[in-house]
Amino acid sequence: MASPQVIIIGSGLSGLSLSIFLTRLIPTATIKIYEVRPSTHPSTTGTINLTPNALRVLDHLGIYKSLIPQGFNFDNLTMLNHQFDFLASIPIAGVSEFEYQSLRIERRIVHSALLEKVQGQPQVEIIYDAKCESVEESDSTVTVRFTNGTSATGDILIACDGIHSTVRKSFVKDPKDFDPKYTGQISVGGNITKAQIQEYNLKNNPYPMMMFGPEAGKGASFMVWPYNHDGDQFTFFTTLSKPDEEKDWKEFSDKQKLKDIMQETFLSEDSPWNEMVKKTVELSDVDSYRFWPFYLHSIPEKFYSEKARIVLIGDAAHAMPPSGGQGAAMAFEDAETLAYSLAGVLSTESSLGTPQGLEIMSKWSEHRIARMKTIQELNRRMADMRKGSTGSTSGVMFTVKVWAIWVLGLLGVLGRTRRAINNYDANKEAVGWLGEATIGKLE
Ligand SMILES: Cc1cc2nc3c(=O)[nH]c(=O)nc-3n(C[C@H](O)[C@H](O)[C@H](O)COP(=O)(O)OP(=O)(O)OC[C@H]3O[C@@H](n4cnc5c(N)ncnc54)[C@H](O)[C@@H]3O)c2cc1C
């Protein structure tokens, strides 16, 4: 296909990354990104943790080095119990073993670095205030309709429209798989400065910290995590069990209510928690509070449509709760591996509808589904660990959990799980279904 017309829905982390890879791998492509948000507010707020597998993609995109001085770079996560006793230091990342440290950073900084890169590409146009309503494919084209009555047609459409994806609804066959499922957990947290709480870090334990409580009802876990380069601005959060899903979660947009929840959980008279946790909650500014309900998408049979003209990536394909800190990482990995695959399909005589083209898409999709299942399992284990064991007032379960963490840390088992996550290199993986020769030609 001489000059493929690519449509991307959503200019979030996956949509922007994909477009940059495509300009490099298919220089003849014209790429239009349609985004519902206005150009004045292109990104959401908050902080994210990026593990080496995510940072490797950002490095391949040429933006990683610019992010290093803008976030908190670290290797280990300190695990403590509610009394502030040290349990383990878990290796999360590190240059010698994984090529990269881990990076906690404001999401808007990552987004604007990607955006800046996209804006330098003449083949890419971003159209804001454009809400996709539906998509439809034929043998040779794909058409997207917008809520303002307009439409656009291209050769291929990539759904990067996030957890509440509209494209997913036109794509996934079973209506019960349209919407993400609530997992029964919520996260509540806010921001605090190091200056406000350092005096309560009596043993000078290194940040970031994950603390475990003795009883789910009194707060199962509490995280304190720096997010700027100097490590003096912290985000803190807890995961709470909330079995019933709210219809619209409107009540939780009240920041005072969120702080009240934290106070009830961590500052009650019989609270078992250490001073650092108590002071973090007590001294935190109510305006900094945020809340997230945890949702999970079922993984579709494949990530591309019948005629392979519609492809799902990122949260649209496989949104997962933030407990494993891998959602953005998976979106980045999807973007890079898909870009290689599309370049493999479109740069040869084969095209999307041909058996050769379909075979490449099928192998890419199978590979990504297998990866996603591994990551979702890890996510589930992390969520269980953060949630704690409900009603374990006897403390027996808590003791077991604490020792399990300590022993696992000692044996480096958690470190080995990390290797499976961190060492993923999209470029090397794509050789598996495209072959050395094709990848060599694309680079
Ligand atoms: C609280 C929280 C903490 C997280 N922490 C981490 C972390 O530490 N590490 C990590 O790796 N991941 C984390 N994640 C997950 C990560 O943020 C997501 O997985 C990632 O943003 C997914 O990227 P995406 O491009 O698929 O979707 P998004 O980044 O959500 O982008 C989707 C884009 O599509 C646009 N859009 C939506 N609908 C339409 C439409 N109909 N038409 C046009 N445009 C549309 C949206 O406006 C948005 O710009 C966290 C998520 C949450 C909620």
TrEMBL record:
<feature type="domain" description="FAD-binding">
    <location>
        <begin position="5"/>
        <end position="348"/>
    </location>
</feature>
<comment type="similarity">
    <text>Belongs to the paxM FAD-dependent monooxygenase family.</text>
</comment>
<keyword id="KW-0472">Membrane</keyword>
<dbReference type="GO" id="GO:0004497">
    <property type="term" value="F:monooxygenase activity"/>
</dbReference>
<dbReference type="InterPro" id="IPR050493">
    <property type="entry name" value="FAD-dep_Monooxygenase_BioMet"/>
</dbReference>
<keyword id="KW-0812">Transmembrane</keyword>
<dbReference type="Pfam" id="PF01494">
    <property type="entry name" value="FAD_binding_3"/>
</dbReference>
<keyword id="KW-0274">FAD</keyword>
<feature type="transmembrane region" description="Helical">
    <location>
        <begin position="395"/>
        <end position="414"/>
    </location>
</feature>
<dbReference type="GO" id="GO:0071949">
    <property type="term" value="F:FAD binding"/>
</dbReference>
<keyword id="KW-0285">Flavoprotein</keyword>
<protein>
    <recommendedName>
        <fullName>FAD-binding domain-containing protein</fullName>
    </recommendedName>
</protein>
<keyword id="KW-0503">Monooxygenase</keyword>
<keyword id="KW-0560">Oxidoreductase</keyword>
<dbReference type="InterPro" id="IPR002938">
    <property type="entry name" value="FAD-bd"/>
</dbReference>
<dbReference type="InterPro" id="IPR036188">
    <property type="entry name" value="FAD/NAD-bd_sf"/>
</dbReference>
<keyword id="KW-1133">Transmembrane helix</keyword>
